[in-house]
Every structure is written in structure tokens, then in C-alpha cells.
């Protein structure tokens, strides 16, 4: 049995099917999805259908992304602290259009799926899987604001700016990077630093390789660090804009 982590999908079902095939995933494998299943390409509804079905076949851990929460807020008509116009511009338009075509029963099943997403997953090897990050120096169990699990960018920004010569036992070393052996995140695409492959900084592995834009989707074996990628999403969905 292998354990894989999958980056942000953003409605790109074609890419998800491609990476699962390229990694030769079987029903014996565990799949950890880092969130942001929706918003971007045209198949947000189909991605959630696929994940609901996949969870019936094998062990799947589905983490909550900020776009998943935005979609849930919209589906449940919660408008407090929700800039619907901004969401619409950042991928929500494709999600709205997708949900206009489905039955009430299917929409209800999707709401249930989104409501039951996990804020994070901590495995028995002290490896943390979370969409965005956390801010409490003692770890996720002491986080003050749960929204930061799917909105925080400071964990990744700190990892990027950290002097690689600084050792974990140094008094200046960020305590957040000593709590877990490894932390796997999405949320902030590595394309922002000119990369399209998973990037490790300190103990943090960023697996969002820009599938919402012009990058590929990535699946990574968390034990061996071997990874597989789809074709760039703008090529798979050549007649769409995604979030570009």
C-alpha cells in the first residue's frame, strides 16, 4: 500500500484522471487530497462526483480548501463575509455554471461532501496535511482560527524566506517548523516562484503546481517523494480560460 498526496485540482477532472493513471494508483493505495476541488476549469461538479465515488472504493482523505468553503457558502446561501463578486472572478463562475445543470439531489450530496471535509490530517508518522497552513507555534490543535487552515499563506512565505543555513536547534529557527516532521500544503501555487514541480522548503512540501492556471496537477508519493504530473491544464482545457 502506498500513500499519495494530490495538489489543488480546481475543476480539472481530466488532469486528475491522468495523474491517477500515470502513478498507477490502485484501490490498495491511500489518497490524500489537499483541497480546492472546485473553481477554475469547467468540471468542478464532475470532480466532486468523482471523489464521492472514489471514497467508496478506497481510502481517501479529503482536506478542505478555501475554494471548497467558498462554494459551500454559496450553495448554502451564506453571504456574511463572502465577496461573491470576487469569488466569481477567481474561478467561481465555472462552478456556478456547473451547478446550474444538476439535480437537487445531486446538489444535496455535494453539500454533504463539502460539509464533511477535514481541516487537516495528521498521520502516525507526524506528517501534517493541510490546505494552506497554520499559525499557532504549537501546531494545529492549538490554532485559534480554523479558517487559517485553508487561508493562511504565512507558513509558506516563512518557509520561502528562511535561511537554509539556519539549523532547527538555532534560537532563531521558526518554531512552527519543528512541530511536524513534514507538512504538505497546496493553496499558494509554486508557479509564483517560477516552478511547476513540488517544492520543499524546510519541512514544508508545496504540491500546488498551478493547475488552476497554466501548470500541471501533481500527485506525490509521500514516502519516496516520487511524483507524476498531468499535462498543463490550459492544454487539457484548451478552449477555456480557467483562472487565467
TrEMBL record:
Key word Repeat present: no
SUPFAM superfamilies hit by this protein: Metallo-dependent phosphatases (SSF56300)
Chain segments annotated as coiled-coil in the UniProt record: none
Pfam family, one: Metallophos
Entry's Gene Ontology molecular function annotations: hydrolase activity
Protein name: Metallophosphoesterase family protein
Assigned EC number: 3.1.-.-
Keyword Hydrolase: yes
Domain called Calcineurin-like phosphoesterase: residue spans: 1-148
InterPro entries per UniProt: Ap4A_hydrolase, Calcineurin-like_PHP, Metallo-depent_PP-like, Ser/Thr-sp_prot-phosphatase
Record key words, sorted: Hydrolase
Amino acid at each position: 500500500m502506498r500513500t499519495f498526496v494530490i495538489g489543488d485540482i480546481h475543476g480539472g477532472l481530466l488532469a486528475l484522471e491522468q495523474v491517477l493513471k500515470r502513478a498507477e494508483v490502485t484501490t490498495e493505495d491511500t489518497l490524500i487530497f489537499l483541497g480546492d476541488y472546485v473553481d477554475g476549469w469547467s468540471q468542478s461538479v464532475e470532480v466532486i462526483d468523482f471523489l464521492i465515488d472514489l471514497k467508496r472504493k478506497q481510502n481517501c482523505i479529503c482536506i478542505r480548501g478555501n475554494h471548497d468553503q467558498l462554494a459551500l457558502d454559496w450553495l448554502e446561501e451564506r453571504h456574511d463575509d463572502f465577496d461573491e463578486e470576487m469569488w466569481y472572478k477567481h474561478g467561481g463562475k465555472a462552478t456556478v455554471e456547473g451547478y446550474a445543470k444538476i439535480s437537487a439531489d445531486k446538489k444535496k450530496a455535494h453539500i454533504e461532501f463539502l460539509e464533511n471535509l477535514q481541516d487537516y490530517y495528521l498521520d502516525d508518522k507526524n506528517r501534517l496535511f493541510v490546505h494552506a497552513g497554520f499559525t499557532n507555534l504549537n501546531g494545529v490543535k492549538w490554532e485559534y482560527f480554523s479558517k487559517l487552515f485553508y487561508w493562511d499563506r504565512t507558513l509558506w512565505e516563512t518557509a520561502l524566506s528562511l535561511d537554509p543555513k539556519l539549523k532547527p536547534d538555532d534560537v532563531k529557527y521558526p518554531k512552527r517548523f519543528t512541530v511536524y516532521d513534514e507538512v504538505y500544503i497546496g493553496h499558494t501555487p509554486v508557479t509564483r516562484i517560477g516552478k511547476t514541480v513540488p517544492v520543499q522548503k524546510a519541512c514544508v512540501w508545496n504540491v500546488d503546481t498551478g493547475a488552476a492556471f497554466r501548470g500541471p496537477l501533481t500527485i506525490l508519493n509521500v514516502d519516496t517523494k516520487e511524483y507524476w504530473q498531468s499535462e498543463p491544464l490550459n492544454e487539457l482545457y484548451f478552449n477555456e480560460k480557467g483562472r487565467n
